[in-house]
Amino acid sequence: MGFRCGIVGLPNVGKSTLFNALTATAAAATANYPFCTIDPNVGRVPVPDSRLDRIAAIAKSARIVPTQTEFVDIAGLVKGASRGEGLGNQFLGHIREVDAVVHLLRCFEEPDVTHVEGSVDPLRDAEIIETELMLADLESLERRLDATVKRARGGEADAKFELPLMERVAALLRDGKPARNLTPTAEDLAIFRRLQLLTAKPVLYVCNVDEGSAASGNDLTRNVARLAAAEGAGVAVISAKIEAELAQLADPTDRAAFLADLGLVEPGLNRVVRAGYELLGLLTFFTAGPKESRAWTVTQGATAPEAAGAIHTDFQRGFIAAEVIAHDDYIACNGEQGAKAAGKMRQEGRAYVVKDGDVILFRFNV
Fold first, then answer.
1. Rounded to an integer, what is the distance from CA 234 to the centroid of its chain?
2. 85 and 34 in contact (C-beta within 8 Å)?
3. Per 3-state DSSP, what percentage of the chain is helix, strand, and coil (rounded to 5)?
């Protein structure tokens, strides 16, 4: 699977509209009033990658299996959510295990769509959401701190080891800073991850704009881009309205024509996924054959055995070698046999670091 992300934002910023469009379902109710989404919604969407289609066509694959990205849509948060205001705080637990948090920010003016804060200001909205996530983290952490202190006083070794890190994170949150501002040591990393703090996760700001701003953004999105650059966060521009209309078009030709009329070359989903991959340091490799061509996601820097493990743990355990063809060589040589004849297929061992676009055949024995 690609990556899992939780979508958070104030009410009426377009979260449910975007979720419906991305997953091509009507699982989340949409309406022009706060809290229309009262249950967390989870949807998986295929990661768009034209390379997979080209590989499958050459391999004459009977089946094409893209990697997937999972979206978790949470009810709109409001100021005071950590004190029980609104409904979104009830569902924050559902995004504690995601890889990244998507802050959907309203970057369009529309008199007919009310804003819970009375005006459109994405930077203010981002601060409100971040504050509520920090308060939720602090509440969760302080509960665990009390128990950990008692265990440490009782002489429990694990608690004594965990306590200093927990206290440092709590101090950071009390100071109004997200947990991701802390850089844990290699020894502390496992503990830090187990805390499952919302503000420890990478942030992807997604700017929801009007149709006219979908191609080049606007002043509001440029403000968000500056914020993202300062924080080391990701950013993408999307029009939930366009994505909703696009989801209704099944014919690829109609979809391409619709996008072209708006000055767009690809759906907003592509930009969101690409920004997420870049933020999380992910890459895609492929396996191909007559039965199926499939895309797989691994972290940048993954070795060949680790990539094999993404397919099956037995592949990693019994890894012997990886036969690798770069995507461009696979296409230029018209597939595996042509690449082999041209000397473009390489046999790589355990130390090989997988590259984005590699087409790989794993040799293993268990």
1. 10
2. no
3. 45, 20, 35
Both structure tokens of 282: 């992910």
Residue 58 has pLDDT above 90, yes or no: yes
pLDDT level of residue 89 (50, 70, 90 thresholds): low
Cα–Cα distance measured from residue 103 to residue 10, given in angstroms and rounded to the nearest whole number: 9
Spell out the alpha helix ranges (H) of the chain: 15-23, 50-59, 122-153, 157-174, 189-194, 219-231, 240-247, 252-261, 268-280, 304-311, 313-317, 327-332, 336-341
Q: Is 36 exposed, middle or buried (0-12, 13-18, 19+ CB in 10 A)?
A: middle
- Closest C-alpha among 210, 225, 229 to residue 268: 210
DSSP line for 203-230: EEEEEE--GGGTTT--HHHHHHHHHHHH
Report pLDDT for 132: 87
If you search the block for the tokens 């094409």, which residue do you land on? 64
Which is nearest to 274 in space by CA: 50, 24, 55? 50
If DSSP codes are grouped into helix, strand and coil, which group holds residue 264?
coil
Phi/psi of residue 210, nearest 5 degrees: -75, 170
Q: Is the pTM above the cut of 0.90? A: no
Backbone angles phi, psi at 207, to 5 degrees: -90, 115
Q: Which two tokens stand for residue 215?
A: 């191609």
Angle at which helix 122-153 crosses helix 157-174, to 10 degrees, equals 150
Question: Which strands, in side-by-side order, build the sheet including 319-325?
Answer: 63-65, 292-299, 282-287, 359-364, 319-325, 346-348
Contacts of 31 (CB under 8 A, 6+ apart): none
Q: What is the mean pLDDT of the chain?
A: 88
Pairing of strands 234-238, 292-299: unpaired
Q: What is the dihedral of CA 248, 250, 251, 253, to 10 degrees?
A: 50
Question: Does the pLDDT at position 27 exceed 60?
Answer: no
In angstroms, the CA 135 to CA 173 distance is 8
Q: Tell me, what's the pLDDT at 87?
A: 47
| Structure confidence at residue 213 (pLDDT) | 94
